[in-house]
Every structure is written in C-alpha cells, then in structure tokens.
Amino acid sequence: MRLKSLVPVIYILFLMLPIYWLVAMSFKTTNEILSGFTLFPQTWTFANYIDIFTDPTWYWGYINSIIYVTINSVISITVALPAAYAFSRYSFVGDKHLFFWLLTNRMAPAAVFALPFFQLYSAVGLFDTHLAVALAHCLFNVPLAVWILEGFMSGVPKELDETAYVDGYSFPRFFMTIFLPAIKSGVGVAAFFCFMFSWVEMLLSKTLTAVEAKPIAAVMTRTASSAGYELGLLAAAGTLTIIPGAIVIYFVRNYIAKGFALGRV
C-alpha cells in the first residue's frame, strides 16, 4: 500500500523538477548559473524580476499577451457555440465532412499560415495589432472549441430543447438560460484550451507583431547580448509566464476532469 502511494508522489516530484529549477534559476545571476551546478541560489537576487517590472518592453509583453489571448478566447467560444449546437442537434448534407474539415485546420502547422496572414494583415492595416494575433489563432482554436463543445452538447438530451419550446421559450432565451448552464463544463474546458494554445503559441504572434502588440514569447527572445544569454532574466520571465496558465487551470480544474470523463479532452 505504501509503495502504491510512493510511486505517484515520485512521479509528481519528477514533473515538478523543471518548474523548481526554473524558479531557482530566476533568483540567480547569470554568472552563478554558468559557474556550475547548485541546487539552491548561493546569492539570492531579485534583480531579474526588478528588470521585468521596470522595463516597459517586458511588462507590456505580458499585457499584450493577455489582451490578445482574452480576445481570442472570447471570439473562439462565441463562434464555436452556435456551430457546435448545429452539429450536435441537426443532420445535414456533408455535416460529417464539414466537421472533419474543421479538425484538419487544427492539425495544420502554424508555419503554413504565417506568410498568408502576414501579407493579408499588412494589406488591411491589421499588422502589429492585438486583433491580428487573436484572429489568426481563431483558425486553430475555433475547430478545437467546436469539437469539445459538440461532445458536451451531444450529452444533453434533445428532449430538453423540445420541452423548452413547448413552454414558450424563444431560442435565444432557451440557449442562454437553460442550455448554456447545462454545458458550462464544456465552455470552461474549451476556454481553457483556447487560452493555453494562444498563450504559448509563438510563431504567429511573433510574425504578426513588431512593437505595439509584441507578446512576451517574442520579448523573451531578446535576452541575448554581446556577453551571451541573460539566463537569470530569461528564467524570471519564464516563471512569470507560468502564472496566468496556473491561475486558469485552478479555476477550470473540475471542468477539465469532466472533459476527460466525456472523452473530448
């Protein structure tokens, strides 16, 4: 019995080791990191975090990322909800093929669309804006959100719709007051995955921005100097990058478990 309890503990500690190492490095100087192996910082320093919170380039990188990630998540869920409802409730010619086509967009690598998006947004004046990155990420997040939400919606009996219509509910009122609360777990799961993809994606966000909307993932590539990489600063930036994802996971952790149970995650 003790062995069964020990194995998952060791596994969790193994998974947490890279995170601990990243946090420990963030309190070290670059010279100490390069000088050799140390389990704990020999000389604790907060200079790396001070640099991030006092340099507009750094903290605006986080703000820019949060802005376009939020916009993308809202757009993706808003678009995916009616599409997923149609796939879960109606049968029409080519519905299976259309559903598969949506998923193929999610399977394509982001590099395939980088140049077309760059030329398109440059032509219409959207280059280096938060909306440009948010819309580009919708190409990947909308199919994923539709796929997840369709699974949750299919689990809701169609009799619920029919009963609401008999009771005199209009479709918007039924959808917002009855149906949406019934699939709130699916909305949470879909929003989580949209957030995480948009938060960690770097190729499109770096290609479609320059200065005004530059995300933190792109800013982190500027840690190289004539003396080499500023490893302590990079570790501090990486540590702060983990925090928004951890917060989102905390609030949707129960919904993610339901998503696994339904086989849609």
Helical content, roughly?
A: over 70%
Terminal Cα span: 31 Å
Question: From N to C, what is the helix and strand string?
Answer: HHHHHHHHHHHHEEH
CATH class of the largest domain: Mainly Alpha
Quaternary? single chain
Tell me, rounded to a whole number, the average pLDDT: 85
Task: Note the beta-strand portion.
Answer: under 5%
* CATH T-level topology of the largest domain: MetI-like fold
The number of distinct helices, counting runs of at least 4 residues, comes to: 13
Q: Give the beta-strand count.
A: 2
Q: What Rg do the Cα atoms give? A: 22 Å
What is the CATH architecture assignment of the largest domain? Orthogonal Bundle
Largest sheet: 2 strands, antiparallel
What is shown here, in short?
The protein has 265 residues and is mainly alpha-helical. The protein has helices at 2-26, 30-35, 47-54, 56-89, 95-107, 111-124, 130-154, 159-166, 171-182, 184-200, 203-207, 216-219, 231-261; strands spanning 224-225, 228-229.
